[in-house]
Specification:
561 residues, alpha+beta, eight-stranded mixed beta sheet, 16 helices, disordered N terminus
Length: 561
């Protein structure tokens, strides 16, 4: 159907009948009269087609004439009886009387290649002393394997064409990964070595695949990729949990007596600071990318964000990545459709190109993972208003069908247990929840006609809860100003943002997805510290410390190297 602008995309569609929101009680817990519950499946009938999903072609050769192991295994018939060169790190090394067996991995895929080394080769005495973790290169003949675990293996014999090259040995008594099993908590202490494990290797490939899928999706829809700044003077969410960027402390050499103090306010003076004002690491690129959406229409940003939230939970990081698209001339329905399509596209991409890694996660991390992902791809997402969702939860409690730690009432910012019930018990598939109370939502969300709710939208999925949060943005200057003041934000700090409403304002909408949350969704890994190369969290800016992992448990108690 082609890639249309959102206004064209919605032409001739059958509009979902809008109904008036029910009268909203105050945030205090009301005396509950159980309402009549609506059917919890407000499906979007419009048919949409995902962009074509490209097939990932793994290059055969790398540098120095090295054949990638994943390519060799996927095209094994091409290599049988041929002499090739591979290189990597030994996952295992074991000796028998006449042979040494090595399982080699180069990180290109989850499966290693078995090397069978004959004792008659010239440097066999050195080879048989090596242990797991050693780096080696082998040139030998590919033959069909008699074993059931692999289709082919490499034979290294006393042949002028064959050789075994030692790049670096690995002392077993010192190597942190010498054992076959390690806890994920231990691996965070050796974050520089943990990519050699099967788990982190697979997670890394999946992270790379989802990056590619993200760019493919938005680029195919005509979006422009915008780099937004990491340093900002505004707080996008108004939450205040931001890292400050300053040169003042360094210039004062960390001596309190040398800090510049404003004599009038008695507070720290920033007149001599690098930016001449307080500056922070961004919590979101949304506000900045809106400026480009209001000029170039469909844009997205994908970059690092930071939050100084003092949390040890398995769902929080101090440094993480966000994907934030923004569409001009679009509304809450458009952005809901875009979010659903994006999620399905990313999952479809990895299912097409990385099924071997998904099978590893399904086997080692979460049984039934692939079926759960198919449930997301194959089903149209359910759609409800926040009010309808709360009514369903209240009725479930009243009828004794559900019990929650947090009491449900209108005005509650729903907890994970509530999201889990709605997606896993009520809808049994992903759910798009919209029109939230404005009391706990950001200032930039469009205020609905009832003046109690905003056009906010969350995409909730079974097992993980919220993975995407978005909204239609407030395009009216007077309403935006009122919201900024209601939230006690400095209106002058948002002068540039307000200008977008003063000069040619347009309806626009967007969403944000935490990239690490997306990886957790696709891999089944239940701790966010395992899906980012170098996790930054409370008290740790280098590697994760095992001593700080006692506040939570992980399903991944042990990992096979």
């Amino acid at each position: 159907m082609g890639f249309l602008r959102f206004s064209q995309f919605r032409k001739n569609k059958k509009m979902v009948e809008k109904k008036e929101e029910p009268t909203i009680p105050p945030k205090t817990e009301p005396a509950i009269a159980v309402p009549v519950v609506p059917t919890p499946v407000l499906e979007e009938k419009k048919e949409r087609v995902l962009p074509p999903i490209p097939t990932l072609e793994i290059p055969k050769m790398s540098f120095s004439g090295r054949v990638r192991i994943r390519y060799l295994l996927e095209h094994s018939s091409e290599f049988v009886d041929k002499v090739v060169f591979i290189a990597g790190w030994a996952r295992t090394l074991r000796n028998s009387k006449k042979l040494t067996f090595a399982e080699m991995s180069d990180g290109s895929g989850p499966q290693g290649l078995q090397i069978v080394i004959d004792k008659d080769i010239p440097n066999y005495a050195e080879i048989e002393k090596l242990r797991a973790g050693s780096s080696l290169g082998f040139k030998g003949k590919i033959v069909k394997s008699p074993g059931a675990k692999q289709s082919v293996e490499m034979q290294i014999q006393n042949n002028p064409e064959h050789y075994a090259k030692i790049y670096g040995d690995c002392p077993a008594d010192q190597y942190p990964l010498a054992k076959k099993e390690h806890s994920v908590e231990f691996l965070r202490d050796v974050a520089h070595l943990r990519p050699r494990t099967q788990l982190i290797g697979a997670v890394t490939r999946m992270r790379n695949a989802l990056i590619m899928a993200t760019h493919h999706f938005f680029q195919s829809k005509g979006f422009l990729y915008i780099h937004t700044p990491c340093i900002t003077s505004s707080d996008c969410e108004g939450a205040g949990a931001m890292f400050q960027v300053t040169t003042t402390l360094a210039e004062a050499k960390n001596e309190v007596g040398k800090l510049p103090i404003d004599p009038t306010t008695k507070k720290l003076s920033y007149t001599g600071d690098f930016f001449k004002k307080p500056a922070f690491l961004t919590v979101s690129g949304q506000l900045e990318v809106e400026t480009y959406a209001c000029s170039l229409c469909d844009v997205y940003t994908f970059g690092p964000t930071f939050r100084a939230e003092k949390s040890h939970t398995p769902r929080h990081l101090a440094e993480f990545w966000m994907i934030e698209p923004e569409i001009a001339f679009g509304d809450i329905t458009d952005v809901s459709d875009l979010a659903e399509d994006y999620l399905k596209y990313c999952i479809s991409y990895v299912m097409k190109n990385h099924m071997d890694d998904l099978k590893f996660f399904d086997d080692k991390v979460e049984k039934g993972l692939i079926e759960r992902l198919k449930n997301i791809v194959d089903n149209t997402f359910a759609r409800l208003t926040y009010t309808e969702g709360v009514e369903i939860l209240m009725k479930a409690v009243a009828e004794g069908k559900a019990k929650f730690d947090e009491k449900v009432y209108w005005g509650l910012d729903l907890f994970f247990e509530h999201e889990k019930y709605l997606t896993e018990v009520v809808c049994k598939k992903p759910l798009i929840l919209r029109n939230y109370p404005k009391s706990f939502k950001a200032f930039y969300m469009k205020v609905n006609a009832d003046d109690k709710t905003v056009a906010g939208v969350d995409v909730l999925v079974p097992k993980l809860g919220e993975v995407i949060g978005g909204s239609q943005r407030e395009e009216k200057l007077d309403v935006l100003d009122k919201r900024i003041k209601e939230m006690n934000l400095d209106i002058d700090a948002y002068s540039w943002y307000r200008d977008l409403r003063k000069y040619g304002t347009v309806p626009h909408a967007g969403f944000g997805v935490g990239f690490e949350r997306m990886i957790m969704l696709v891999t089944g890994v239940d701790n966010i510290r395992e899906v980012i190369p170098f996790p930054r969290s409370l008290g740790h800016a280098e590697f994760q410390s095992e001593s700080q992992t006692l506040y939570f448990t992980s399903r991944l108690s042990l990992i096979h190297i």
